[in-house]
Structure formats: C-alpha cells, structure tokens
Amino acid sequence: xxxxxxxxxxxxxxxxxxxxxxxxxxxxxxxxxxxxxxxxxxxxxxxxxxxxxxxxxxxxxxxxxxxxxxxxxxxxxxxxxxxxxxxxxxxxxxxxxxxxxxxxxxxxxxxxxxxxxxxxxxxxxxxxxxxxxxxxxxxxxxxxxxxxxxxxxxxxxxxxxxxxxxxxxxxxxxxxxxxxxxxxxxxxxxxxxxxxxxxxxxxxxxxxxxxxxxxxxxxxxxxxxxxxxxxxxxxxxxxxxxxxxxxxxxxxxxxxxxxxxxxxxx
Length: 266
Known about the structure:
Elements lengths: L1 H8 L5 E5 L2 H13 L4 E5 L5 H17 L9 E4 L10 H22 L5 E5 L14 H5 L5 H13 L4 H28 L4 E7 L5 H5 L5 H5 L10 H12 L10 E4 L3 H4 L3
Parallel strand pairs: 1-2, 3-4, 4-5, 5-6
Helix pairs in contact: 1-10, 3-4, 4-6, 4-7, 6-7
C-alpha cells in the first residue's frame, strides 16, 4: 500500500520512503525510479522513538536544502504495521500502537499549515464489541506507555489459541489507531494541520493474502463487494486524504473494506 501510494504522491512531491528492511527499500526505490520518480530512502524501526525523530529531522533537512525552509513537511502516509500471521501479540501491539504514537508525535512537532498525517488502521478496528474496547487503557498512551502496552496485552493472553491471541492484539491495536487519531485532531488543528486514519479491509497485497489463513477471505463471502481490493484502490484513497483536495477532512476514520463491516449490520 505504501509503495502504491508513493507512485501517486511522487508525481508532484519530493519523497522519502521508509522501511525496516534496506532490501525492500532498494527494491521499492528501483521500481519508483523506473517510473521516473526519484526518492530518498531511510531504514527506520518505528518502535524506536529516536529513530523516528531522526527520520523526521532528515525530512526537514531535505526541505531546507530545497529552499523551502526547515519543517515544511507536506504530508506523511504511515502504512507500516504487522498483522496476526506475522508476529506475537506483544510485537503486534508495539509496532501498531507505539509506532503510530512515535510517527504522530514526530509529525506534530513539524506540522504546519496544510500538513496532513494519514495513519493506516484496519476494518478490524470496527469489529470489536464496545465492551471489548479498552478505552481507559488507551488513555495511558499519553502518560505511561509501559503500562499502556501491559494493559492491552492482558486480554490477549486470556485467549485459548495463539491465532486468537494474535487476532485480538491486532484488533485492539487498530481500534487504538482510530481512537488516537481522533484524540490528536485538536492538537494538529492548533497548527492548522490535519490527522486522520484510513481503515482498509482485505486487499490483494502480500500481507493481505497472508491473512487468508486468519479467515479474511471467508469474510468476503458476505461482503457487498465479494473480492479482495486492488492496491491501487486504497492508494488513491490514501493519496487523496493526504492532499489539499481533502483539506477539511480531519479527526475521522474512513472505512474502505468493500462492505464487509456493513454486511454485519443486522
């Protein structure tokens, strides 16, 4: 999703693309170059707050070198994350929640008028019953992140099977992303900047196909559109949300799931 979005944003933006894997970065940069899109690359572990801060410092320096003035970062589309088939509950929670917090805090420090941060959540963030949403624990993200992760991990450990534990950790983490973007909208608004989340459903990506083992394809049987989404479809939405065309869109989540969640409404 990130690469597909970069292909759109790179038409009229200077890009920095980031990943934890240098190999994947090199492949992505070469693919963009073949389309006539130049980009800088940075290896970054989003669970490392200092690494994220350095990433945003580098982005600010790039704009300064172009004569735009330090801190004139235009937009960030944050697609990094891991799903139930990829890791244990603790790792899922740390990457999806702490990573989002680090990206958001670093973005807020540089945000100016017209800036937009788009965080990727998931339709899983729309599927938890209200009684299972640990909102009190979410608030600890602002005061005690160690306790925050511990509180989110606890219900996952009570699940009987590893896949259930992973799935609950993922759903909780993405519910948090949606909640957190709404809570941070006022702070971005104080800078005349925007923050929102986009919640994809099942898309035809490497991660999306991996999650077929978790039942994502089965959910499509009852969806309004009974197919996997195309990566270009979600990329267009992400790029739109980051653009000036969406300049009044903030503090909300956009669900793009082909009607999976809607089909569950009785």
